[in-house]
Design a protein that fits this description.
Structural class of chain B: mainly alpha
Shape of chain A: globular
CATH architecture of chain B: Orthogonal Bundle
Oligomer: heterodimer
Number of strands of chain A: 2
Radius of gyration of chain B: 20 Å
Mean pLDDT of chain B: 84
Order of helices and strands of chain A: EHHHHHHHHHHHHHE
CATH architecture of the largest domain in chain A: Orthogonal Bundle
Number of domains of chain B: 1
Low-confidence stretches of chain A: none
Shape of chain B: globular
Strand order of the largest sheet of chain A: 1-2
Mean pLDDT of chain A: 83
Amino acid sequence: MHEKTHNPLIHISKRSAMPWYTAWAIRGIALVAALVVCAIVSVIVTGEDPFQIYATIFEGSFGSSRKVWMLLQNIAILLCVALALTPAFKMRFWNLGGEGQMLVGGLATAACMILLAGKIPNWLLIVLMVAASILAGAIWGMIPAIFKAKWNTNETLFTLMMNYVATQLVAYFIILWEVPKGAGQIGIINQKTEAGWLPMLFGQKYMLNVLIVALICVAMYVYLKYSKHGYEISVVGESERTARYVGIKVGKVIIRTMLLSGALCGFAGMLLVGGTEHTLTTTITAGRGFTAVMVSWLAKFNPIWMVLTSFLIVFLSRGAGQIATNFGLSPSFADILTGVILFFIIGSEFFINYKLNFRKHEAKEG
Amino acid sequence: MFDFIGFIPRAVMQGTPLLFGSTGETLTEKSGNLNLGIPGTMYVGAICGVIGSFFYEQAAGANMNPVLGVAIPLLCSLLGSLLMGLLYCFLTVTLRANQNVTGLAMTTFGVGIGNFFGGSLIKLSGSEVPAIVLSNTSALFSRPLIGGNSWFAKLFLSYGFLAYAAIIIALIAAYVLKRTRKGLHLRAVGEDPKTADAAGVNVARYKYIATCLGSMIAGLGGLYYIMDYTSGIWSSDAFGDRGWLAIALVIFTIWRPNVGVLASFLFGGLYILHMYIPSGMNLAVKELYKMIPYVVTIIVLVISSMRNKRENQPPASLGIPYFREER
């Protein structure tokens, strides 16, 4: 009795390992495909020839030295948030609360700038800003972590909700501090005295931001790769049971790591408020807390690769923004193009992790 | 005296998009897919309906056929959100991509689509204000089923048909999930796909169908918001963070669409409570009132995890892709 079994056309199996260059080649192909699709979309919408579109994308990032600095500045902040989220992600703790942690960090910074300006020396003000933002972000990140460690509360949903609590908190303080009364916004803080503004370095406004984030990036790489903490994070991420078995206190690692993650997010909020925007709005983070999730994930949680992925995303969104300005489109065009590119890269991971085995014709069974 | 007759219908209308969103997301999450693209999907559902009705209003002019006037936006909206659902499924189920990343990318994408096409239509219509006004279509959508002036009619009969549809869909979803074999299979897929697979349930098919249906239902929430709540006026970012509130509502109702009916109206009420509570000159406090829905959701999430009752937990495999060979 031999029953013919159904033999699927495509059989999917997991790849054992792939050299890193092949993996990046696949990602590169996906990126190129995405860029082609983006160009097609742009051509349909604008009616320009595709090379003009690509030229415009470059112009958006490298068109002038101001644009280059804007690019670097944006990369720095996005990278900072991505680095902040990474230790949590490595632990399989989905910290989607980057937005909220940045916002409370920014809020703490703005509070120092508004309430203490002129009362204490500037260097002390900046030190306090840094401390306050780190503390605020750490608290915001630690709350979900404590509940996760103690009662296994779903962290994805918890951190997500904390974002909106933070948004409303910021909205509350904006109205409290609004200038002038009834304007509904704070405006530029300490515009005349520039108290609490991060200092210029080598005559460049954003140089300090970029340097600090570069340092954090290297430090995070070392921390994750070579420190005992980093090792514990990987073990907890791979298997909580193993971690317990080898005597790692899982709860402690979760709380400690989220403390770090939240603190860095808060610091990113400080860079945003104290170093770049010099104001506070509820939308100041511009979705970076979410974009950073993708930056970190695309880089496979490797801090060094994250420089590349954050560059890619900022470069593309600034380029798409330039297309929108040049051709009179809505600025949301950038979101669409970013979305398309992300879909392609997200999809390409499949071909890195899995292998497609097509059914062979009339395969002989042994 | 607190104006209940004025407040409750507003709360219901504010809650209806959330109800659509949360019913859709509950169905999706029951299959183990945490679709964080729902806020984007709701934008797409809204803008597709707006596009459909915009061109129909332009084409038909004064003599609009009421049936077509309702059917065209409705179908466009369903189609748009179906495509979003399919995209999510293709990436997460077929290609096994990370659900959080895919969902967030979809929200960026969907909000972008909404605001971009909204902006283009505004330019096309050449209007002075940055908004599209679809009052004819909106009149069809927001026409009360029966209407009347008594307090009873104001509280229960004054809504457009989509509001009633939201309640009916939520109740049907609750029934299907709890009482039918299909619902049992779906829950099995969300709880433990390996076991479901071993029992002969087609895991991928259930995930696809539940997620796509969920997306379509959620998209209707966007459509309702534009056509009924704002009386057919689309402006950029008008929908706000309601999509995230819908996801909060899923947790708040501990994954039960029938609870969602009342809970969504409660959330809707909390969302607009600040307009009805006299806070004197202190506008700032109103912002804190808007925080309440989220804080309440967090409390529910924490309490349900503390009590650790099995039926109140998120689906066990929520957010985890299923790969049969990986056992």
